[in-house]
């Protein structure tokens, strides 16, 4: 077998595969410790903690300077609009707050970027809507792009938001529709 013009031997001993030579002649060994997954799990734990404390500055500190987000209707908001929206939402939010992110696949794009499919993004909070405090729950699946910076991983974008469900006081509300306490629960078809 030849790899980039170099002869390469692969020896299989039972279930052990000896590494092939990379194009530069150095052995290519896969790192199985999953350092990217571990670092991103830590970043999501920090994001959960910041959301649960309603700490806007800590949430914003986890974002990349070029952060953008897509909402459940496919509209994209840049860094400044997202920052304003986050501040406005935090001003309406009251404890208790529960935020949980369950990581699915992580697709690295080089060593300094990764796209994470967050299978379940769930937030439960007390929030002021229509002058009353109401329990609001949202459930989504989304693709988050993280970039490794000198001081750690930062969330650069939230895209492909899908499987969105929104509940107010236990009643499902149609996505993109304003909350109406008199409306019947939304029943998707």
Question: What does this protein structure show overall?
Answer:
The protein has 189 residues and is α+β, with helices and mostly antiparallel strands. Helix content is 20%, strand content 47%. The strands form three sheets. Strands 5, 6, 7, 8, 9, 10 and 11 form a seven-stranded mixed beta sheet that branches. The protein has a two-stranded antiparallel ribbon with strand order 1-2. A hairpin with a 2-residue loop joins strand 9 and strand 10. The protein is globular, with a radius of gyration of 22 Å. The chain starts with a strand and ends in a 16-residue tail after the last strand. The model is unreliable at 1-22 (pLDDT under 50).
How is the topology of this model organized?
Layout: E1 2-3, E2 6-7, E3 12-13, E4 16-17, H1 35-52, H2 56-61, E5 63-70, E6 76-77, H3 79-92, E7 93-108, E8 113-129, E9 132-149, E10 152-168, E11 171-173
Characteristics:
189 residues, disordered N terminus, 11 strands
State the total count of DSSP E strands. Answer: 11
User: What is the alpha-carbon Rg in Å?
Assistant: 22 Å
Measured distance between first and last alpha carbons:
55 Å
Helical run tally? 3
Percent of residues in helices comes to 10-25%
**Largest sheet report:** 7 strands, mixed
Instruction: State the secondary-structure class.
Output: alpha+beta
Average pLDDT taken over every residue? 84
User: H/E order of the elements?
Assistant: EEEEHHEEHEEEEE
Please give the oligomerization state of what you see.
Answer: single chain
Our estimate of the beta-strand percent is over 45%
Shape: globular
The poorly predicted ranges are: 1-22
């Amino acid at each position: 077998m030849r790899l980039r013009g170099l002869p390469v031997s692969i020896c299989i001993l039972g279930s052990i595969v000896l590494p092939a030579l990379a194009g530069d002649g150095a052995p290519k060994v896969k790192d199985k410790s999953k350092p990217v997954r571990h670092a991103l799990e830590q970043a999501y734990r920090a994001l959960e903690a910041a959301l649960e404390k309603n700490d806007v500055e800590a949430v914003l500190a986890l974002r990349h300077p070029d952060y953008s987000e897509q909402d459940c209707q496919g509209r994209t908001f840049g860094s400044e609009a997202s920052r304003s929206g986050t501040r406005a939402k935090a001003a309406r939010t009251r404890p208790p707050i529960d935020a949980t992110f369950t990581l699915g696949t992580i697709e690295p794009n080089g060593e300094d970027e990764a796209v994470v499919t967050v299978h379940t993004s769930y937030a439960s909070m007390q929030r002021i809507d229509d002058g009353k405090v109401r329990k609001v729950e949202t459930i989504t699946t989304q693709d988050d792009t993280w970039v490794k910076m000198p001081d750690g991983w930062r969330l650069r974008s939230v895209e492909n938001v899908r499987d969105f469900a929104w509940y107010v006081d236990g009643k499902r509300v149609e996505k993109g529709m304003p909350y109406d306490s008199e409306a019947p629960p939304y029943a998707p078809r």
